[in-house]
Amino acid sequence: MSMALMEYGRCFFHYTKWKTASEHIIPSGKLRLSPYSQMRDPLEAMAPMLGAGVSYAPGDQEAAERMGRAHYEAEEEIGRLRSCTKVLSLTVDAEWAATVPEPDRRFGMGWARARMWEQYAENHTGVCLVFAKDAFKAAVLLQLQARSPTARAGTVKYANTGLAGSRASTILLSPDEPGSQQARRHMEKHATEFLFMKLSDWESEHEYRFVEPSETVEYSCVEFGDTLVGFMAGHNFAEDLEAEALALARHHNIEARQILWAVNGPMEGKFKSG
Prior knowledge:
This protein is α+β, with helices and mostly antiparallel strands. It has helices spanning 18-28, 42-45, 61-84, 102-105, 114-120, 133-147, 179-189, 191-195, 242-251; strands at residues 11-16, 30-35, 51-53, 86-91, 127-132, 152-155, 157-159, 170-172, 197-199, 207-212, 220-223, 228-233, 255-262, 265-269. The strands form 4 sheets. It has a 5-stranded mixed sheet. A hairpin with a 2-residue loop joins strand 13 and strand 14. Helix 3 crosses helix 7.
């Protein structure tokens, strides 16, 4: 495949350390999904709290007690379900970049996120892996849905108050059904809010997620096959690793480039030695 696929809207991007990419991801042909309990965002790693809308006859103490148990069970179940759910986070080109003149489009490309280079790719010394978007999505969803039929993928939505500001933060309960069953229906109904919503602080990541429901807190993996187009190295990538990086790219028939911060913005360039 060619890095020409790095045209707008054609790729997924994944920032990571060079050691992780070169010793694990590229040689194995696999990416790891992590449980929500291991997310960097504390609001996603913790169990969500739910308000409860209730309905029972005034003075019915027995119903009130059943409702209390149902509310407790519902919170426990949603917390368990989300903490066990696995997620693979990638980034995509910014939507706004499709509407600007081509010379300015580079600022919205998925490989040109200075903050993500700093945070996820070892302060600009790591790499950004580039995947052919349509082929990757088809291959990964096929694997995930074979393991879990309700696995899904989609863009992350951002909100100033996150889950707290949505209807999903309140569950309408009946005292006549176990809270765990009601929680499963509620989470499925509001899957976007529970699984694809983050605070606006994270909006610059333009995240796209693959989500796999699960009953365990262990990691899982997917194979990406021949959908890896290549990788972009950070501008501080060690010069003494360039030969190794180029050899790895040749061995796996992918391309290796390096991001350059020049002409007042990000640019796609070649290694100094390549």
